[in-house]
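REQUEST FORM: STRUCTURE PREDICTION
Request ID: SP-0412
Submitted by: Lab K.M.
Chain count: 1
Length (residues): 418
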Amino acid sequence: MMQSIRKHAQPFVKEESLKVLIDRVGDAKYVLLGEASHGTSEFYTVRAELSKRLITEKGFRFIAVEGDWPSCYTLNRYVKGYSDAGVEAREALKDFNRWPAWMWANREILELAEWLRQYNEDKPDHAKVGFYGIDVYSLWESMSEIVKYLGTKDSADLELAKRAFECFEPFGRDEQSYGASASLFGEGCEDEVVELLRELQDKWKDVHPQDQENALSAELNALAVKGAEAYYRTMIRHDAESWNVRDRHMVEALEKLMEFHGEAARTLVWEHNTHIGDARATDMADDGMVNVGQLLREKHGSDVYAIGFGTYQGTVIAGMAWGAQPEEMNVPPAIVNSWEELLHREGAEDKLLLFDKSENVLDETLIGHRAIGVVYHPERERGNYVPTIISKRYDAFIYIDETKALTPIYSFAAYVEM
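STATUS: Completed
RESULT:
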């Protein structure tokens, strides 16, 4: 293994290495940019620099992230310079007000948002680069946005939306309560949500061009509600199905965005390694789990290019429990014989690995590959590794030997007060 690493790893020197990656991306329509945590500055900044280059040099049309549609759509309106979208990115980022808010309300995203705003400034609306969230957690927020949007229209769909909203109201915005009721007692809102989505589907194709993206937003909010309803209904069983519901939803939302942006559209997808790295090259497959990277590769083949990220040690922003005060934590040195430790052993510098699918490179065995979530316990480090065949999981891998925590732009107390 060390001999293979020595042969195929090259120094990661930002400008030179990004150029190599851009060449490797070629004509791929889906470029998947991972991260080994949701709180590491370098994962965000390197993705941002690569994204800027792919936007300016290769014409990529939008960034899709592991975030909620409503809050990301607020930021999307800001970076496109819409008249009611605020005067600075910090203001637009206030909509990321639900835990773990630091994932997107951070200095690194603020800087990217200002760059996108400037890049879009002299472009017509149809050519502006967008920023969208494709996750499933925004059940209540998405329902509110649908009702608000339809309330501005002379549309019978408003009654459908209100009926769906009323179905969820008894659960008091408590996802666990809804999941238990829907899963155990059959008292769910699936039918109402499916009917609403059916009515809103593709409405953007028939409205005035200036309202098309808002109509698309209504549909994507309905899709998010449908995905969230299924996710919370299945989550109660504690099996792989809720994970699969979530990743299938993200692919469906992504492909709807690709359709909206036209046949020549190309997208950048920012998600955790566990979503963008092919699940078939990990032990996730043994548990019946699929993910975004696998589903896109199965459907789009060489139109997909996935880049994973990793680190040996440093600091990270995370919480000790869901909803807990986020804090800067130490990331201890990677455990012996993990993927990250092997790369560090070869030399304590940043590295880039490029994988050629025609060669059997670094595919001898499953090796532990660190994955840090929004909830993190460094003292339980062994539980944070996903057995992985690295060369089959990604097309390329960026290794940053020592990393630091990203910088949230609001304190935890500020979010509690919002």
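NOTES: The longest helix spans residues 212-235.
Reviewed by: T.R.
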